[in-house]
Amino acid sequence: MIWLLEYFVLKELAMRIKKLTLQTHKLEEEKTFYGTTLGFNIVHQDQHSFTVKIGWSQLTFQRSDVQYRYHYCFLIPRNQLPAALAWMQQRTSILDIEPGQKTVHFDSWNADSFYFYDASGNIAEMIVRNGLDLESDKPFDINNVLCVNEIGTPTTDIATTQSYLRSETGLNVWKGNVTRFSTVGSEEGLFLLPNHEVKTTWFPTNDAIIPAPYQALIDVDNTLYTIKYNNAEINAAIVEPVQ
Questions:
Q1: pLDDT at residue number 240
Q2: 73 - beta bridge partners?
Q3: Is the pLDDT of residue 6 over 90?
Q4: Alpha helix ranges (H) inside the chain
Q5: Secondary structure (3-state) at 179
Q6: Could you report the per-residue pLDDT of 176-201, keeping only the tens digit for each?
Q7: Which domains does the chain have, with CATH numbers?
Q8: Sequence-ordered strand ranges (E) for the chain
Q9: What is the C-alpha separation between 67 and 237, in angstroms, rounded?
Q10: Which residues make beta-bridge pairs with 116?
Q11: CB 74 within 8 A of CB 145
Q12: How distant, in Å, are the alpha carbons of 35, 154, 183, 190, 225 from that of 158?
């Protein structure tokens, strides 16, 4: 009974991605895509990086000589998928799920989404999570995007990665299995954990899943943790309050 109680408490911990930092070999093109094409507010920029505000998150791209490819996702209000799709189609190409089909429903996730490439060739996604009571009565524009919601974190040992994140942050598995694909966190923020030796491509493309370094700041029930992911290994550290 104690074990079951602990399990359900851990399952209910909420995770939010406050900051996500990615590497890009096309910094200027990425800045134009996010700042001009999509119109996100650029809150910082210099010769080596820029940062855009996305709801309760910040997304930073840093200049790199190496070409990396990521998969990440944005959360939008659950009643605005058609409006978001129409708005985005006026600004960039949306990937086909099947010929003529731009959106996909994930029954086990109670979610719907669509996908597009950013300027670096990363696979970006906009998702509605029907279980979250997050709606908007405003016409859709880029200010309706709520946050960075997911970040791909490939591994060859899902079970060990899950165990590590649970021990360091208290986060537990949301959906998935230890063989092919798992997720850790909550509907407000998720680490996607594909075993890239088993699940080799990112849906809905044939793009290979290859570990790419990132840094993040996450909020787990009002406790902040820094996340560093490099060489397919993840490290978490609590952010101590300033005394």
A1: 74
A2: 125, 150
A3: no
A4: 2-11, 27-32, 81-89, 158-169
A5: coil
A6: 999 999 999 999 999 999 999 999 99
A7: 2-17+54-59+67-238 (3.10.180.10)
A8: 15-24, 41-45, 49-54, 57-63, 71-75, 104-106, 111-117, 123-129, 147-152, 173-176, 181-186, 189-194, 214-220, 223-230, 233-238
A9: 27
A10: 124
A11: yes
A12: 35, 9, 9, 14, 20
SS3 154: coil
pLDDT of 69 > 90? The answer is yes
Positive or negative, the Cα torsion across 183, 207, 57, 108?
A: negative
pLDDT band at 3 (very low <50, low <70, confident <90, very high): very low
- Rounded Cα distance between 212 and 214, Å, is 7
Tokens 């949301």 belong to: 174
Which of 121, 115, 92, 18 is closest to 60 using CA atoms? 18
Q: What is the pLDDT of residues 78-125, one digit of tens each?
A: 999 999 999 999 999 999 999 999 999 999 999 999 999 999 999 999
User: Can you tell me the distance from the alpha carbon of 85 to that of 106, in angstroms, rounded to the nearest whole number?
Assistant: 17
Residue with tokens 């787990």: 220
Report pLDDT digits (tens) over 14-57. 999 999 999 999 999 999 999 999 999 999 999 999 999 999 99
Give this prediction's pTM: 0.93
Alpha-carbon span 157 to 178, nearest angstrom: 8
